[in-house]
Amino acid sequence: MDERRKLPRKYLMVYSRVFDQKTGRVIGYLSDMSQLGAMTISDDPLPVDTVLELRFDLPDPIIFSSDHLNLRARVAWCQADINPAFYNIGFEFLNVGPKEAEVIEQMVVTYEFRRDTTPYPPSISSFLTPGEAQPDS
User: Fold this and answer.
1) Has residue 18 been placed in a domain?
2) Is position 119 within any domain?
3) Is residue 126 part of a domain?
4) How many domains does the chain have?
5) pTM
6) Average pLDDT of each block of 10 consecutive residues along the chain (137 residues)?
7) How many H-runs (helices) and E-runs (strands) does the chain carry?
8) pLDDT the model gives residue 84
9) What are phi and psi of 79, to 5 degrees?
10) Distances (CA, A) of 4 to 1, 22, 39, 58, 79
11) Domain membership flag for residue 1
12) How far is CA 84 from the centre of its chain?
């Protein structure tokens, strides 16, 4: 997959729950975030281009003066995780206002997990030995 990200991905040290606001269902756990979008780790896949009203749990209401952040988002991509029991889902934010942008920036600054390793999620092919066939999805 070509890298089309406009802002650098920030891996977070906290795994906040992410909910579908309409159903209350847990979509997954926040893995990374930028002003433009986020990645969650989920038990279930979501169809690309699905638009959802998301609710992100915020880890420290004292820092954020709220316990959640609501954002409308589009599923930009969805792929199997390294562990085939999970999926990585990339969301593109659709309605980030100044207030929400401030909360996202504070999340990134406060909880960024700095990595000097290969970007996550790696492709399945990176685990195959030369000549080995990629398993069917």
Assistant:
1) yes
2) no
3) no
4) 1
5) 0.72
6) 50 73 94 89 96 91 83 96 92 94 86 53 60 57
7) 2, 8
8) 87
9) -145, 155
10) 9, 30, 14, 27, 16
11) no
12) 17
Structure tokens at 26: 């847990």
Q: What is the CATH number of the domain that holds 37?
A: 2.40.10.220
Q: Judge whether 33 and 12 are in contact, CB under 8 Å.
A: yes
What's residue 113's pLDDT?
45
Residue range of the domain that includes 33: 11-114
Residue showing tokens 């600054």: 109
Query: What does the alpha-carbon distance between residue 25 and residue 19 come to, in Å, rounded to a whole number?
Result: 6
Query: From the centroid of its chain, how far is CA 25?
Result: 16
What pLDDT does 116 receive? 45
Angle CA 41–58–18, to nearest 5: 30
**Tokens of residue 97, six digits:** 């206002």
Contact between 55 and 69 under an 8 Å Cβ cutoff? The reply is yes
Q: What is the DSSP letter of 57?
A: E
